[in-house]
Amino acid sequence: MTTPNRRPRHVSRRAFNLVEVIATIVIIGMLGAISAGVLRTAVDGYADAATRAELVNAASATLERMVTTLRDVPLRAAVTPAEPAITTITTDSITMHNGDGVARVGADLQLIIAGVASSLTGDVSDFQIRAFDQDNAAMALSLSGDACDPIRRLELTLTLSRNGVSETLRTRVFLRCMMRGAAP
Prior knowledge:
alpha+beta
């Protein structure tokens, strides 16, 4: 007599026990935390780069506008030898005889033309002006009146800051009125 194929009464089914489930959750959580840290660093880097690019563009446009204005400082009328028409200069402002100028007001940099102030840029954390004479020697600031006469070149340094990111640009301006063959 043959015996039919019998299955064992107790089929062993393999299932996850509680320890395995908890270990899996912990491993997935650790992988998620590491991935989130990497992604967060990448997103922060992108945001900082975008902010930095905006600041560089704003500072560059601001300095270009200031350079255009300051290069065209006129000569003082009926004065020999030639002298630029600058009335006062401090570490963060310039005023010309006609009232035009550049000044930092709080976190704003303003250009004053014909008595009307217009904002060049905001987010200014530092703005410095340095003046140089015909021998390229730095002049002590604050200057006013006749003390401004030897100025031949200006150096402008602008620092903009936003969201913890700062960018600094510097440029030099040669006064055209002093470069047109006018005797210093």
